[in-house]
Design brief:
The protein is an alpha/beta fold. The structure holds guanosine-5'-diphosphate and magnesium ion (MG). Its EC number is 3.6.5.2.
Length: about 180
C-alpha cells in the first residue's frame, strides 16, 4: 500500500495567553515569533510517518466560550489542551475542558478520546506555580497524555506533542 493517508483534525484549546498560537506556529514554521494577535485559523500541516502521509488540520483560536466552542469540540478528532506553568487558573481551566470534551464525545469511550495536556512556558521555571507532578497526575486520572514544553525555547518539545498525538490516532482512525 503506497498511498496511505490520514487526516486528523486537532483543536488547540486553553485560556488566554498560555501559548496556543505560539505552539501552533512553532510546529508549522519551526519559529518562535513572540507576538501572535488574536487570529482564528485552521492550518494544515503534512508529514510522513512510516511512509504514511499524515495531514494535521489544526484549529487555533482566541479563547471564547461561544457557540463556536461547541463546534470546535465536535469538529476535532483530537485535542491539545494548553496551560502555562506560571498560571494556576489556566491549569484549572484545562481540568474543566477535559470534562466538557468527554461529555460532548459521548459516542466514544471516554478513555479513547485523544487528549494531550500541555504545560507550556517551561523556560519560565523561576515563575512556576504549577508543579510538573500536578500535570502528570491530572493526565493519569483522566487518561490523557502529558508534556511540559517551551514553545519559546524548544522546538523539539513541541514536535513531540504532535507526534505523540499522531501515534495515538494511527491506532484509532482508519486509513482513507
Ligand atoms: P494564546 O493566547 O494562547 O494563543 O497565547 P500566545 O501564543 O499568543 O502567547 C501569549 C504570550 O506568551 C506571547 O507574548 C508569547 O510570546 C508568550 N509565550 C508563548 N509561549 C511561550 C513560552 O514557551 N515561553 C515564554 N517565555 N513565553 C511564551
Ligand atoms: Mg492565540
Amino acid at each position: 500500500p503506497l498511498h496511505m493517508e490520514m487526516d486528523v483534525n486537532i483543536v488547540v484549546l486553553g485560556t488566554e495567553s498560555v501559548g496556543k498560537s505560539a505552539l501552533t506556529v512553532r510546529l508549522l514554521t519551526r519559529r518562535f515569533i513572540g507576538e501572535y494577535g488574536d487570529i482564528e485559523s485552521i492550518y494544515s500541516h503534512s508529514f510522513l510517518v512510516d511512509g504514511r502521509e499524515i495531514t494535521l488540520n489544526i484549529w487555533d483560536s482566541p479563547y471564547s466560550e461561544t457557540s463556536l466552542f461547541e463546534k470546535k469540540v465536535q469538529w476535532a478528532d483530537a485535542y491539545v489542551l494548553v496551560y502555562s506553568i506560571c498560571d494556576r487558573a489556566s491549569f484549572n481551566a484545562v481540568s474543566r475542558l477535559i470534562q466538557t470534551i468527554k461529555s460532548a464525545k459521548t459516542y466514544l469511550n471516554t478513555e479513547k478520546v485523544p487528549i494531550v495536556i500541555v504545560g507550556n512556558k517551561r523556560d519560565l521555571h523561576h515563575r512556576r506555580t504549577v508543579l510538573s507532578e500536578e500535570g502528570r497526575l491530572l493526565a493519569l486520572n483522566t487518561n490523557c497524555h502529558f508534556y511540559e514544553v517551551s514553545a519559546a525555547e524548544n522546538y523539539h518539545s513541541v514536535l513531540t506533542v504532535f507526534h505523540g498525538l499522531v501515534n495515538r490516532m494511527k491506532d484509532i482512525k482508519p486509513t482513507t
